[in-house]
Design a protein that fits this description.
Blueprint lengths: L1 H10 L1 H21 L5 H19 L3 H19 L5 H37 L1
Helix pairs in contact: 2-3
């Protein structure tokens, strides 16, 4: 029974995507048409149409897969061991020191090569 429901749902996915595209086009054209109206009303209209378009898109197979991806990514983010403030500060200082050291080395090398070229040319 579930397979039949999925097949019927996927049969109408293209229709749902057309509806989403029409809603997005309506939002763009409506925003242009009502350009004389205050921006608050236009933004609220765009948000409402955007939410409706998202709800329609989430009813498709790809939309459900995207929601599943979002849920799984939240679970993975919770598993991450974030560095402490001290570790972040130390790492940042090391990166800044290495960048400064490399800048000095490259400046010195550039100056040396420039001096050598001026000897050869001049």
């Amino acid at each position: 029974m579930n397979v039949q429901a999925d097949t019927a749902g996927s049969r109408f996915d293209s229709v749902r995507w057309v509806i989403v595209a029409l809603l997005v086009a309506l939002a763009v054209v409506g925003n242009q048409y009502y350009s004389a109206e205050p921006i608050l009303y236009r933004v609220l209209g765009l948000l409402v149409i955007g939410v409706v378009a998202a709800l329609v898109a989430f009813q498709t197979a790809r939309g459900r897969a995207f929601l599943s991806l979002l849920k799984e990514s939240r679970v993975e983010i919770r598993k991450v061991v974030w560095p402490t403030r001290q570790e972040t500060t130390q790492t940042t200082l090391i990166v800044v020191a290495v960048v400064l050291l490399m800048a000095l080395l490259l400046w010195g090398l550039d100056s040396l090569l420039g001096w050598l070229v001026s000897l050869v040319v001049g």
